Structure formats: C-alpha cells, structure tokens
Amino acid sequence: MGASAASGWNRIARALHWGTALAVLVEVPAGFIMSWTYAARDAAGKANHILSSQIHHTLGMLLLIAVVFRIVWRLTHDRPSPPATSTRFEVVLAAAVQGMFYLLLLALPLSGWAALSSMAAGAGYPAPEMWFFGTDGFGPNGFIPHIVPPVAWNAPVLFKYGFFARVHIWGLWLGGGVLALHMAGALKQHFIARSDVLIRMWRGQA
Fold first, then answer.
1. Distance from the CA of 88 to the CA of which of 43, 46, 53, 102 falls in 20 to 30 A?
2. What range(s) does the Cytochrome b561 bacterial/Ni-hydrogenase domain occupy (predicted)?
3. What is the pLDDT of residues 21-79, one digit of tens each?
4. What are φ and ψ of residue 109, in 5° steps?
5. Considering only CA atoms, which of 148, 77, 86, 140 is closest in space to residue 117?
6. Residue 37 and residue 30: Cα distance in Å, rounded?
7. Does this model's pTM top 0.70?
8. What letter does residue 192 receive in the DSSP assignment?
9. Res 33: pLDDT
10. CA-only gyration radius of the chain, Å
C-alpha cells in the first residue's frame, strides 16, 4: 500500500520497529561474546559461551519470524507521507535504506541458520541450544530443520560453515553502515529539518 494522510505510525508498527531495534541491541553483543568465548577452557568462559549462544541463536530465529510478519504488515497497511521538508533525494534514499534493512534482517538470520545447519549435530558438532524451540534447535528434541546439509568444516565444498559464517559477518558490517545512515537521517530530520519523523515513530503523532 502507498503513503497515506495518516499523521503517525500505529502501535503495531511502532512496536515492531522498536522491538526489532531492542532485539538487535542484544543480538549483536551476544554474537560477539559467543565468538570470543568459543575456545574458552575455564568453567566461567564455557558458561558464558553457552548462554550467549542460546541468546544469539534464539533471538535470531525470533527476529526472522518478526521481520517476515513486519514485511507482511508493511505491505498491507498504509504509512505516513514523507515530511514536507524532505527533498526527492532524501525520500529515495530513505526508501533504499529501509529496503536494505528488510533485506539484511532476512539475510542475517538466514545465513546464521544456514551456518548452524551446516555444522550442527551430525557433522561432528553438538547441536546448538535454543530456547523455545525444544531442548535444542536441531537435536532430537528440537524442531528446527536443517536448511543446508551438515558437512565437515573442512569439506572440499563451497557451501559449508565458513562460507555462511563469512556471509553472516559481512552482512553484519553492512548492516552497521545502513544503521548509521538510518540514524543520521532520523537525527537530521529531527534536529535540522525540524520535521516530525522521529516523533511519529516514537509516539504515533506529532
């Protein structure tokens, strides 16, 4: 649906926006902690690795579900018109940034899912633990399917853990750049152009 004369975003749209932002704020640090503690030998380090893995993997799945719902919601509901202070370039750039966000919010969980699928139990690794999805995501008591076949990390094939992990990391850095553009645009509209863009997303109406 196109832009409408609505003065602000409704509650569901705002909840999806800020809920996604909060989840990403937890998801990214958890991913770094998971990586840093992977080879930990002490009990505390191993415990931190398991906890951060559970948080990162579970939130990743929940984010994927949320972004699919968010895209459906976005396509079936009107949105407020761009502020009158925006130039044509700013409107196009904002749309491009939003499109990149949706693409990355799909690509990052999917690449992470593929990475876990490629190295999960059955390829010489224990199944990663997840909350809400059974005892673990991929094991006998879980119900998360493999979206790629499990293979050894050093198998002579392209689509293995290293490939999906690199896609995941590249997507993360690209997402950081897109987020910086998004935040810069919102702050520019609020403090320089004095538009109501940020207010509409925060409380619905100016």
1. 102
2. 9-204
3. 999 999 999 999 999 998 888 999 989 988 998 899 999 999 999 999 999 998 998 88
4. -60, -40
5. 148
6. 11
7. yes
8. I
9. 96
10. 20
Cβ atoms of 82 and 155 closer than 8 Å: no
**Residues composing the chain:** 206
Three-class SS string for 90-148? Answer: HHHHHHHHHHHHHHHHHHHHHHHHHHHHHHCCCCCCCCCCCCCCECCCCCCCECCCCCC
Residue ranges per structural domain of the chain:
3-203
Mean pLDDT on 76-88:
88
Position 92 scores a pLDDT of 95
Is residue 104 within 8 Å of residue 157, measured between CB atoms? no
What single-letter DSSP state applies at residue 4? E
Cβ–Cβ < 8 Å for 91, 2: no
Tally Cβ neighbours within 10 Å of residue 189: 21
For the domain spanning 3-203, the CATH number is 1.20.950
